[in-house]
Structure formats: C-alpha cells, structure tokens
Amino acid sequence: MAFPQTRLRRLRQTPQLRKLIRETELNAADLVMPFFVRPGRGLQVEIPSLPGQFQYSRDVLLKSVGAAVEAGVGAVILFGIPDQKDSLGSGAYAKNGIVQESARQIKKKYPDLCLIADLCLCEYTSHGHCGVLKGDRILNDETLKLYAKTAVSQAEAGFDVIAPSGMMDGQVSSIRLALDEAGFEMTPILAYAAKTASAFYGPFRDAVESAPKFGDRLTHQMDPSNFREALREISLDALEGGDMLMVKPALPCLDIIREARQRFDLPIAAYSVSGEYAMIKAAAKNGWLDEKKAALELLTSIKRAGADFIITYHALSAAQWLKEK
Ligand code: PBG
Asked: Where are the alpha helices (DSSP H) in the chain?
C-alpha cells in the first residue's frame, strides 16, 4: 500500500513515537577515547589541528582518563610520543616505554578500565615509517618481529587489548603467536583490518609527530578506491585470529563497515579518525555547524552502518552529551 493509506509522517508526530521506533541508539559504552601521552610532568599541550585534544604527561593524563571513566566511555586507546626516536623504533617495545609506563599507572588507578594499545612503530621511528627500512623500502617480515616484541611488552604492561595498526602482512598471526608464547593467550587483538592511506590522518600525525620524513604509506596502507580488497584484508585478519575487526577511517568507509557487518560475525569497530573530528571542530568554530548535533549524527551513522563500537576523539564529549539527554 502506498499513499494515501500509507503516511510515514504518522510515526514522526511526537517525540514519544519517534523514540519508540528509533533503530540505532548511541551509548557511551560504544565509544573509545584516544589519548596521547608524552614524557614530562604537568604537561597538557593542545594539538593545534585537534582542538580540545592534548598531549599529556603521565600525571595529567591520569586525571583526563578519570574524566573518561566517569563519563562511562567503553574503553581508552593510548598513543605515545617518546623522548627519543630511532631507526628501529625501540621506544615502542621498551619495557619502560612511554605507553608501557602509562598503562601501569592507569591500570593501577583504574583496574576496571578497558585499556587498548595501538601497536605501530611510526610514532617511535626517526624516519616516521611504520617498520624497519632497507633503503626506502619497509621490510615486512623484519617488522613483524618488532611488532611481536611490542605486543608482548604492551601485554606485560597491563593493556587489555592489542590493536596493531601498521598494515604489515601477517601482523595479526605474528602477534597472536608471540602473545600466546608469552602466556597472554587471553589477550584479545583488535585488528586494524581495512585501513586506507587516508588524508584524514593528517592531524593525528601532527599530534604524535609521526609524518613520514620521506615517501608515503602507499605500499602498506590500502588504496581508498578499493572495496573488494578491503574485504580481503578483513577476512585475512579474521583468519589470522583477530578477535575484533576494525575499519578505518569511518566516514569515508561506511560502505566497507556495512559489508563487514554483513559478512563477518566478529565484532566490528570503526575508527572515526582525526580528520573527521577536525572537520567538525573547524566548522563549529566558524559557526557553520552545531558541534554536538553534527558529532552525534556522525557517530550514530557509523553505528547504523554496522559498527559495534567507535574510536573517536569526540568520545568523552559525546558520552557527556548522551548523559544530559
Ligand atoms: C598508526 C596510526 C595512525 C592512526 C592511528 N594509528 C596514523 C597513520 O596510520 O599514519 C591515525 C588515527 C587518526 O588519524 O586519528 N600508529
């Protein structure tokens, strides 16, 4: 039946009816808040291209993590800016590395918080690349050994979930093997499965000072033009033992999130990246967008596309906005 018998506006007449038929509901528990930690004391340095986001020293970080816990976010993901960078990214797998030390501190104060470790070398290498270089090439299998060491050091530090983001082939199975051998067979892996070489990571690279000193990430991150290849990436990470699969970025990849949801029964995560946040912030600052409405709409749409949870720089504010409602 169509018009005039059918009138979709009937169910939109009142807030009560609209609420009753709402299909997608965003919860604070679906949101993961990223934090950046750097050496020092008493530091809270705003990141110019990510207004409202900061590089924190460990002492100040603890307070901000507390605010996220208070707001009820589902988890926190940590990124480190080390004191020194070198060609092998040794700060990534140092026992007393910046994220390892922070994790120990955070878990001591907030033992129930789900703490996720991003695993990559680009924040820790002097050249800004995600792996071991030979000339200007990234060596895949050599890099895997360092990822494996990093994963174990992160699990030892108390991280609850390990999230490899380097897009090396075989990274999930290498990390799984290393974790199991070290007795961390119960530590889950959140695989950055389909991650494109996106312009939307720009502000993040300012935040962690990880822009490659030469070249780009096109030999390991995916071409954003490719849908089928994204699904191959996702299915390989599932086969390699990924416990949760991530699509990144989110807004430019809603079709991939949707398809991943339909094809795989594993939990699907989406990373709404720095550029997505920066766009909203910039437009809001100019009075062109309502930040709260735009951010909540964007996050709801990512969830509607099929994501079970979302990593977003809006996690803390969104969790607080959702409480006000
Ligand atoms: C790699 C990593 C990146 C992001 C998360 N993990 C940067 C990159 O691949 O260059 C980007 C996240 C964002 O833009 O918010 N460590």
From this structure: 15-20, 58-71, 98-109, 140-157, 171-181, 202-208, 227-239, 254-263, 274-285, 291-305, 315-324
Computed on alpha carbons and rounded to an integer, the radius of gyration of the chain in Å comes to 20
- What is the Å distance from ligand 1's center to 49 Cα? 14
**Single-letter amino acid, residue 92:** A
195 part of the active site: yes
Predicted TM-score (pTM) of this structure: 0.97
Beta bridge partners of 86: 125
Q: 240-253, pLDDT tens digit by residue?
A: 999 999 999 999 99
Q: Ligand 1 in contact with 168 (CB < 6 A)?
A: no
Domains and CATH numbers, the chain: 24-324 (3.20.20.70)
pLDDT of the residue at 259:
98
Q: Report the nearest-CA residue for atom 5 of ligand 1.
A: 165
Indicate if 107 belongs to the active site: no
- pLDDT one-digit tens code per residue, 180-212: 999 999 999 999 999 999 999 999 999 998 899
Residue 70 alpha carbon to ligand 1 centre in Å: 26
